[in-house]
């Protein structure tokens, strides 16, 4: 029987039949650039050919690209010399695109990963790759699209020394880089899945809590997991209301740990009754819910936190429900990707060691 202990400094320890399985002695670190041959444009797909194969315990340094065309950036005011050559190459050479619009680095195949397993993704470090970001809106997208029936793009300088975005005169936004999209391939029955709406695979979660130091747990749906990452944000407000954040290119250092036979949540099918993404930070446990209906997304997130508290903290469902009400926070992560995102945060400090 395989179990996971979740409570030590935000990291999980794999326990098999009472014995510890340590990190592989020869764990490797790989660097994966964003090139025409190493990106998936707008999709997660169980039939995709992996661009890198790794083992549990390995670390990958991912280079990712913002999703905007070189022409569009230049029209908005970016100097041609400041447009990444790799972005030009991807736009010129990648013709297999869609149905979504995100440029994602991957997929990465994790040896031994099979449906029913859990992939733990430890976000070790996130670095800015370029000194600017953009924010944009257009008619037909965003939460107030009828109020803004036109398109606009704003280029926003990033101060890497002070870690702020110079949004405008007298306005600075603190930077908290994270990846809007991190996910695995869906079940083969999904076909090629659109990169925009988050779901049971993770994907375009746009959850600003997933900064360096956070850990993401993803259910595995197909052999190798086929992890992809992208949609870099230098910062974002909860809701991402105009449909973009501080969109930029990032470099992320991620460590992968495979948990064999460990399901996230209760056994069952897709959706709220089955395996679902979960996360934690150094200070909080996080349960997620994604649905086109915001109320239903919230119900999913609450139920997933209750499931976590019952299975991992050995609470009754009644007490779990009550604890969330008195000490948990329900937050809207994004409103604009068809499936809305909600997460429930519960402080780790609530779980104290009983006094002798």
Quick recap of the structure?
The chain is mostly beta strands and 356 residues long. It has helices spanning 70-76, 85-93, 294-312, 317-327, and strands at 2-8, 11-16, 19-20, 29-32, 39-41, 43-44, 52-54, 59-63, 103-110, 118-128, 132-137, 152-159, 164-168, 171-174, 178-183, 193-194, 202-203, 215-219, 227-233, 250-259, 278-280, 284-291, 329-334, 340-347.
Folded structure, characterized:
This protein has 356 residues and is mainly β. The chain has a single domain, classed as Jelly Rolls (Sandwich). 13% of the residues lie in helices and 37% in strands. The chain is built from four helices and 24 strands. The strands form five sheets. It has a nine-stranded mixed beta sheet. The longest helix is centred in the last third of the chain and has 19 residues, at 294-312. The chain is globular, with a radius of gyration of 20 Å. Mean pLDDT is 91; it is low at 1-22 and 267-271.
């Amino acid at each position: 029987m395989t179990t996971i202990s979740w409570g030590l400094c935000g990291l999980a320890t794999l326990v098999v039949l009472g014995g510890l399985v340590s990190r592989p002695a020869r764990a490797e670190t790989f660097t994966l650039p964003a090139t025409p041959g190493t990106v998936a444009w707008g999709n997660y797909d169980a039939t995709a050919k992996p661009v890198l194969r790794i083992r549990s315990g390995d670390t990958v340094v991912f280079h990712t690209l913002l999703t905007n065309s070189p022409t569009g950036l230049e029209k908005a005011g970016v100097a041609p010399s400041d447009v990444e050559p790799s972005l030009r190459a991807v736009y010129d050479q990648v013709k297999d695109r869609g149905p979504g619009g995100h440029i994602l680095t991957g997929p990465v195949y994790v040896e031994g990963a099979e449906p029913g397993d859990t992939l733990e993704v430890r976000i070790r470090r996130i670095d800015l790759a370029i000194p600017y970001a953009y924010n944009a809106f257009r008619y037909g997208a965003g939460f107030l699209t009828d109020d803004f029936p036109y398109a606009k793009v704003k280029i926003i300088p990033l101060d890497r020394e002070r870690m702020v975005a110079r949004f405008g005169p007298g306005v600075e936004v603190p930077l908290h880089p994270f990846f809007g999209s991190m996910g695995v391939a869906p079940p083969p029955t999904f076909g090629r899945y659109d990169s925009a709406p988050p779901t049971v695979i993770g994907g375009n979660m746009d959850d600003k809590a997933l900064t360096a130091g956070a850990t993401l747990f993803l259910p595995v749906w197909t052999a190798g997991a086929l992890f992809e990452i992208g949609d870099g944000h230098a910062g974002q407000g909860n809701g991402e209301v105009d449909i973009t954040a501080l969109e930029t290119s990032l470099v992320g250092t991620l460590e992968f740990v495979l948990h064999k036979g460990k399901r996230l949540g209760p056994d069952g099918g897709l959706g709220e009754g089955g395996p679902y993404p979960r996360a934690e930070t150094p200070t909080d446990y996080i349960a997620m819910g994604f649905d086109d209906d915001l109320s239903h997304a919230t119900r999913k997130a609450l139920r997933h936190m209750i499931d976590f508290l019952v299975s991992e903290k050995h609470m009754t469902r009644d007490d779990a429900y009550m604890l969330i009400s008195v000490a948990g926070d329900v937050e809207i992560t994004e409103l604009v990707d068809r499936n809305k995102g909600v997460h429930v945060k519960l402080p780790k400090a609530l779980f104290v060691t009983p006094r002798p």
